[in-house]
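Figure 6 in text form: structure in, sequence out.
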């Protein structure tokens, strides 16, 4: 029997009040797959991730998680189903310690021994977080805050990690480290749906991609095919 997609979206529409942003979006992410979303600013990528994680309601269409209809499920139910969202801008609690921010990702869990083990794994993955575990998160650099946001997502023990704008505002060295850690996370079996402003990095990292244009999927395919497509190269890479 064929295993269902970790997430399968069909005919999805959504937005903010009377402002519709998404129009008939259809896509899927298979278990353990790394997929990227590319598109210009305002194309609807962030809204799409928010619909998937339950923070923006869908007005039409379906969201299936492991084959189960979870359209407009609560955020808590989506976390229980294995979806964790690393939002644009990190959204840490700046006056709380790094450790407490990380533990917020485990707020629905009660397996304390396993939570402690996962916390140690995050510290191993990002040693600077272990060194600064008692430091207020608001005092971290941008790259360190992104590490903390990803670590917080991992404390939920997700099978699908949504990451919005991995590299926005970060130094190149921090971006290189984060990309390597995403590869490690993906190799461990966690599927990733990534929004990334650097299209070349996104397509190099991902297996497949979707191009979002004005709230619609305008193109999709394997990453190498998209990276070689003249329209993608001209629109997002500045290449003819």
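Output sequence:
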């Amino acid at each position: 029997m064929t295993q269902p997609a970790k997430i399968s979206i069909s005919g999805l529409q959504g937005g903010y009040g009377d402002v519709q942003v998404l129009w008939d979006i259809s896509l899927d992410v298979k278990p353990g797959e790394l997929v990227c979303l590319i598109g210009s600013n305002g194309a609807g990528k962030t809204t799409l991730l928010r619909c998937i994680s339950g923070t923006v309601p869908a007005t039409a269409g379906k969201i299936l998680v492991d084959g189960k209809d979870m359209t407009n499920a609560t955020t808590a139910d989506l976390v229980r189903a294995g979806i964790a969202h690393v939002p644009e801008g990190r959204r840490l609690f700046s006056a709380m310690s790094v450790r407490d921010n990380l533990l917020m990702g485990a707020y629905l869990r009660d397996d304390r021994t396993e939570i402690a083990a996962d916390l140690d794994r995050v510290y191993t993955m990002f040693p600077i977080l272990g060194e600064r575990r008692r430091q207020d998160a608001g005092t971290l650099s941008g790259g360190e805050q992104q590490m903390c946001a990803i670590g917080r997502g991992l404390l939920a023990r997700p099978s699908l990690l949504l990451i919005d704008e991995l590299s926005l505002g970060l130094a190149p060295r921090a971006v290189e480290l984060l990309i390597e850690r995403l590869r490690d996370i993906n190799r461990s079996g966690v599927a990733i749906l990534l929004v990334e402003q650097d299209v070349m990095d996104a397509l190099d990292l991902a297996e497949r991609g979707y191009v979002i244009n004005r709230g619609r999927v305008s193109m999709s395919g394997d990453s190498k095919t998209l990276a070689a497509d003249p329209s993608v190269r001209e629109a997002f890479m500045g290449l003819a």
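Caption detail: The chain has a mean pLDDT of 92.
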